[in-house]
Amino acid sequence: MPWSNQSGGGGGWKSGGGNGGGPWGQGPGGGGQPPDLEEMLKRGQDKVKQVMHGGGIPGPLLFLVAIVACAIIAWQAFFFRVNPDELGVVMRFGKFVEQYPPGLHFRWPYPIDEVRLPKVTRQNIIEIGMRSTSTGRLAGGTRNERGESLMLTGDENIVDIEFVVFWRIKDAAEYLFNIQNPDTTVKEVAESAMREVVGQSKIQPILTQERQKTEQAVLQLMQRTLDSYGAGIRIDQVQLQKVDPPAEVIDAFRDVQAARADKERLQNEAYGYANKVVPEARGEAERTLQAAEGYKQQVTNDATGQTARFLQVYDQYKKAPDVTRKRMYLETMERVLAGTDKIILDSKGAQGVVPYLPLDKLQGKPREGGN
User: CA-CA distances (angstroms) from residue 182 to 105, 186, 196?
Assistant: First the structure.
């Protein structure tokens, strides 16, 4: 079957008839393929003719080429690949039948089976109240969306909130078939949940210490709402980016915040001073009480000892009054005269004693070598 045969009954790609039709046996005006596809096939045929230089293709080679072409078509028609971050969802005649993990899987060709490959491991991000800008003067920054960010609090104040929601696919079938536009659904649910939580709170805790509590409340409310929709979406995190009063009154709010911070600082300083002084005063009082108790014990013990000694002396005195009286006299004189510098000599017992008169002391002059 030579490719160079261009006669009406010849073979090749024009074997469908002698009217010069396309490879499907249809003329240029038939209702088959679009003109551009037919023109492309004609150009391919011309290139093949130029390569072969008018010769014929051997039968085995033509058979091998046909087998390879059929294999490629069958591979693409009957097999599909699921990437590691995807999950294969197969619909048969438009009805969900099965899910396939990452890998190579068999399917019936379209329109029997249709495969969708949602990325179940990818974390998606939704911004509410702001938009990240990648072009223009604000490239790399954010643009405020006041229609989304301004919210009314429970104490009838307005707060400007910008936050980000991180979510991913939890159930691929529910995600594909139960909601029509996942991004819009998550965004609207997030904004609604934030407005509900903020509407039940006062402005001051939201601006200060209850940011994390607000994030958790919004996350839980969003998850309950999406689960009730059967959306097949899991909320990973709600992250507040900015929580401020409106720009028109933000200066006044900052002044109030600064005054409140000064108040807390002064209170903390006062508490610190009190915590320092009060323990010191209590310790001093305890020390004084302990000293008084020690003095009391000392005086009591001394008095008890003196009483016991007096009673012992009195008992001995009753047994021998004369001896006891003399002993007491001698002990008293010894105790009294022990510290005096005067010596009294009896005239009868001091006849051989040489008197000594310290003239230097009488004149008030110090002795030589003295101080």
Answer: 27, 6, 21
How many CA atoms does the CB half-sphere of 12 hold within 13 Å? 24
Cα–Cα distances (Å) from 22 to 25, 66, 67, 199, in that order, read 5, 19, 23, 70
Cβ-in-10-Å burial (0-12, 13-18, 19+) of 349 comes to exposed
SS3 label, residue 126:
strand
**Helices 211-229 + 182-199 axis angle, to 10:** 130
Three-class DSSP category at 254: helix
Encoding tokens for residue 316?
A: 């001995």
For the chain, the average pLDDT equals: 75
Helix (H, G, I), strand (E, B) or coil at 65: helix
Is the overall model pTM greater than 0.85, yes or no? no
Q: Residue 91 is inside which H or E element, if any?
A: strand 88-92
Paired strand residues for 234 = 168
- Beta pairing class for 103-106 and 130-132: unpaired
Measured between alpha carbons, how far is 43 from 22 in angstroms, rounded to an integer?
A: 12
Structure tokens at 229: 């929709």
Helix (H, G, I), strand (E, B) or coil at 95: strand
- Token pair, residue 73, equals 């078509």
Query: For residue 58, what are its two tokens?
Result: 């051997």
**Per-residue model confidence as pLDDT tens digits over 24-75:** 333 333 334 444 556 655 665 565 555 555 455 555 665 566 666 666 665 5
Amino acid in the structure at residue 271: Y
> 202 with 181: CB under 8 angstroms?
no
Q: How far apart are CA 211 and CA 204, in angstroms?
A: 11
